[in-house]
Amino acid sequence: MSRRRHSDDSDDSDGQPHKRRRTSEPSEIEERLESLICRVGEKSNSSLESNLEGLAGVLEADLPNYKSKILRILCTVARLLPEKLTVYTTLVGLLNARNYNFGGEFVEAMIRQLKECLKVNMYNEAVHLVRFLSDLVNCHVIAAPSMVAMFENFVSVTQEEDVPQVRCDWYMFAFLSSLPWVGKELYEKKDAEMDRLLSQTESYLKRRQKIHVPMLQVWTADKPHPQEEYLDCLWSQIQKLKKDRWQERHILRPYLAFDSILCEALQHNLPPFTPPPHTEDSVYPMPRVIFRMFDYTDDPEGPVMPGSHSVERFVIEENLHCIIKSHWKERKTCAAQLLSYPGNNKIPLNYHIVEVIFAELFQLPSPPHIEVMYTTLLIELCKLQPGSLPQVVSFLLFFCLVLYMLLSGLGNEVVVHVFINWFSHHLSNFQFRWSWEDWSDCLTQDLEKPKPKFVREVLEKCMRLSYHQRIIDIVPASFSVLSPANPVCIYKYGDESNRSLPGYTVALCLTIAIKNKASNDEIFSILKDVPNPNQDDDDDEGFTFNPLKIEVFVQTLLHLAAKSFSHSFSALAKFHEVFKTLAESDEGKLHVLRVVYEVWKNHPQMIAVLVDKMIRTQIVDCAAVANWIFSSELAHDFTRFYIWEILHSTIRKMNKHVLKIHKELEDTKARLARQHKRRDSDDDDRSSDREDGPLEEQIERLQEKVESAQSEQKNLFLVIFQRFIMLLTEHLVRCETGGIDVFTPWYKSCIERLQQIFLQHHQIIQQYMVTFENLLFTAELDHHILAVFQQFCALQA
């Protein structure tokens, strides 16, 4: 649906829709109708009620000629603009009062759209459609008994056998989350049925499994605020709403102004709706944990923030999330829409906005949108409200200090990683000014403790957004132990004191040759004289894998190309054949990565981009990168954040590779199917057979490639999980033997990174669950490690 603003004749000063010129073309009229519908409810000199009444009149006049277009637009805004839900339900109510048949057709169209959304796993949009239908009860479009009947069908899903809990959760959420809008109306007309539904809801929530919750929590403790599972929190809010006699004080209800008109309208019964059955292709939304930053004590001077179990809190947060989802690509529009949220004088809106932004940023397994968007959005909000929002951001920075103080029990390292990315980006927009002395207590702690580790990673990220000397200048000298190392290349053959090193003379020859633009053959000729330390090994592969040859070549080449990323990329491209030959074996690939680390250990970003480039150019493969990350050579950096950025980037590349080949296969099958369809109307079967041959052969080749890629993908995860299990088991045995506490900072980091692998790549891992369960996560595994797998299984159980 287009959201364009039309400047020719659609911007009336009084906000009223005005008459069209009779000479307008149908396409112009349709565009104008779309613009008027999409913009209703925005700021205007006229009241919302008069705008709605005027728009209803315009649409009623156009129904004879443009009914299908109007139906399509209204169904689309119901799905995509949920923050203006009550505005559009009122509009539909006014149209239904004027044209009963149109109201019936709209209800049927909404049910069709709801069924289609559920069929294609668009569950978030389906929730918006269910709420829209429920609010039509308030507008006298849908009869309350038929809405109750639909909710009874939703709740009955919890009685189904052999279905995943997340299916029941979604239907329960769709029911409960509609009650703030329609609960009062339904209770007045169907109190006995509603009591029964709520009783069944309570029974379901009590027997629900919540093994997954620890994996999704931001905090490990209930400080500074409890982290509740989303359905439990919503149930507490609905219970309080019922206790308050369904009196909700925040939802904008423009239909109340038209009560005398709407109450005279005839109502429609919903068509029978049966939830579609569960299938193997059904992908339900993952459970969530509700994130809290503020409570009613945080803004003592302004309006009081609704309590965490107040339904107003739920409504406000839902609407703000919807606004961000609708406008996140345009930060200026998004900021303006957030600040113009209705009723902003009755709530501490700035606090709500900041909390919702960070709830999305800290959402596990990953934020809904790219991380940089949230920083730019906060900055844009500050620009639009220079007098008030910076105070909230100041509080936010104080909150950063609180987070720092709580780091030892803060919880998820993945969330800390995201917070560091945001915080460093935020500092880069404010000249990296910060009261670093407030964090000086970390200087006396072990570097693996949460606080010094946090500061070190923040400074590392800041350097990526600036340069080394700038960071050294802004940080007190006492922080030098945590400051990033000077990101220079470490070339061991560059110092004459190392003349005794094996390969030193060859490195000098290589340097001269590369500077003189030597060819690949000339490089091979120079390298052939490098002795092989493995030549006496019994392993046959030792003769082909020459670690010294790799070391001399990679060290020298990276040193000569150290000036920039571009120089390094050009070097990899020019000597790609040499790399492929030297890294032919698995040991060769692993050793190339070891040498890259030795050369650039003081420049994590360079390591990350070089590894990325080597995977793309197939110098190394994904399994080699995984084995390298878990190797003893990287043990010192194992908990550094850049290591996990490399690993997740590697997994994503493998996943994209499989998807790309699979798409090629599906496209080729589709081409063959189209060819067969044409053959049905073609008399020359022989020419069709000739055309089919190449495509069928291509399909066979692609099927083999897909199977091979999926095998590599499964092997990559097997390597990663196996190495995790080995490291964690060794740690647990060592602690048990030495009588040491298991829960060290290293253990906490490692176990949470394992959780992150499961969460961020859950859709792929689900495909190989049986293999992983049979080979790795068996009942004999230590319960500390097995618990992570069980939590993951519970996410879609």
From TrEMBL:
> Domain named MIF4G: which ranges?
30-242
Instruction: Cite a GO CC annotation.
Output: cytoplasm
For this chain, one GO molecular function annotation is:
mRNA binding
UniProt xrefs under SMART domains: MIF4G
Subcellular localization, per the record?
Cytoplasm; Nucleus
InterPro entries reported for this sequence? ARM-type_fold, CBP80, MIF4G-like_typ-1, MIF4G-like_typ-2, MIF4G-like_typ-3
Which species does the entry assign this protein to?
Pavo cristatus
**Chief location of this protein within or outside the cell:** cytoplasm
**Bias category Basic and acidic residues: which stretches?**
687-696
Q: Which PANTHER family match?
A: CAP BINDING PROTEIN, NUCLEAR CAP-BINDING PROTEIN SUBUNIT 1
**Family named by the database record:** Belongs to the NCBP1 family.
Q: Which SUPFAM superfamilies match?
A: ARM repeat
GO terms classed as biological process = 7-methylguanosine mRNA capping; mRNA export from nucleus; nuclear-transcribed mRNA catabolic process, nonsense-mediated decay; regulation of mRNA processing; regulation of translation; regulatory ncRNA-mediated gene silencing; RNA splicing
What keywords would UniProt list here?
A: Coiled coil, Cytoplasm, mRNA capping, mRNA processing, mRNA splicing, mRNA transport, Nonsense-mediated mRNA decay, Nucleus, RNA-mediated gene silencing, Translation regulation, Transport
**Protein name from the UniProt record:** Nuclear cap binding protein subunit 1
Q: Where is this region: Disordered?
A: 1-30, 672-696
